[in-house]
UniProtKB/TrEMBL annotation:
One of its GO terms (biological process) is retrograde transport, endosome to Golgi. It catalyses: GTP + H2O = GDP + phosphate + H(+). Belongs to the small GTPase superfamily. Rab family. It is a lipid-anchor. This is small monomeric GTPase. Keywords: Cell membrane, Cytoplasmic vesicle, GTP-binding, Hydrolase, Lipoprotein, Membrane, Nucleotide-binding, Phosphoprotein, Prenylation, Protein transport, Transport. One of its GO terms (molecular function) is G protein activity. Gene3D superfamilies: P-loop containing nucleotide triphosphate hydrolases. GO terms for cellular component: cytosol; late endosome; lysosome; phagocytic vesicle membrane; plasma membrane. It is found in: Cell membrane; Cytoplasmic vesicle, Phagosome membrane. Its cofactor is Mg(2+). SMART domains: RAB, RAN, RAS, RHO. SUPFAM superfamilies: P-loop containing nucleoside triphosphate hydrolases. It comes from Elysia crispata.
Length: 204
């Protein structure tokens, strides 16, 4: 890769057991472990990517989804560039908890609710036969609540894992472009025309 790469902090959030660590390991190392252990606190891995000709170091922060680790994960939300809200398509509760995860992220990252922020929604374990959340339900939630793209992934068989992470970077760049400040329009003054100074007076 040539050129300097920009560091991007990507935070993975979602209920315990939905597959956050597995998604990170699939994306970074192309590995899957059926005996994955619960994360305690946070862990991160870096991955170099090139998206639309730009180089990025994605620093992926995998957080502990279990409630009892809340105080260990929330200090790491600040400064995030992207947030991936994750659930498992065979676990209704993990889908219903998405609004809670979004609120928790915005609060601890100190981002105003409603401010544009690149969220990506990931429905993991799409290889499992016992699905509880349809793609339509998830898509509909995404457009109504987070204005975010939705990806169905499997960390187990690698379906859409690369696509979800790479699209997260494109989404962030798109939003940055939309937010770019347009130059302020000023009324030009024709200096060639002499104007009488205001409050001018004669003191002779
Ligand atoms: N079938 C299937 N199993 C998966 C998939 N992703 C993860 N798993 C399994 O689900 C279990 C939990 O995965 P983790 O990656 O540890 O889940 P987590 O979200 O990081 O969990 P916490 O660390 O507790 O927050 C493990 O047994 C994984 O092997 C997937 O896409 N398909």
């Amino acid at each position: 890769m040539s050129g300097r790469s920009k560091l991007l902090k990507v935070v993975l959030l979602g209920d315990g057991g939905v597959g956050k660590s597995s998604l990170m390991n699939r994306f970074v190392s192309n590995k899957f472990d059926a005996q994955s252990y619960h994360t305690i606190g946070v862990e991160f891995l870096n991955k170099e990517v090139t998206v639309n000709g730009e180089n990025f170091t994605m620093q992926i922060w995998d957080t502990a989804g279990q409630e009892r680790f809340k105080s260990l994960r929330t200090p790491f939300y600040r400064g995030a560039d992207i947030c991936m809200l994750t659930f498992a398509v065979n676990d209704r509760k993990s889908f219903e908890n998405l609004p809670m995860w979004k609120r928790e992220f915005l609060y601890y990252a100190d981002i105003q609710d409603g401010a544009p922020f690149p969220f990506i929604i990931v429905g993991n374990k799409c290889d499992m036969p016992n699905r509880e959340i349809s793609e339509e339900m998830a898509q509909s939630w995404c457009s109504r609540n987070a204005n975010a793209p939705y990806f169905e992934t499997s960390a187990k068989d690698a379906t859409n894992v690369q696509l979800a992470f790479i699209s997260a970077v494109s989404r962030m760049r798109e939003m940055e472009d939309q937010l770019e400040v347009k130059p302020v329009q000023t009324n030009s003054v024709d200096l060639s025309k002499k104007q009488k100074p205001l409050n001018s007076g004669c003191c002779s």
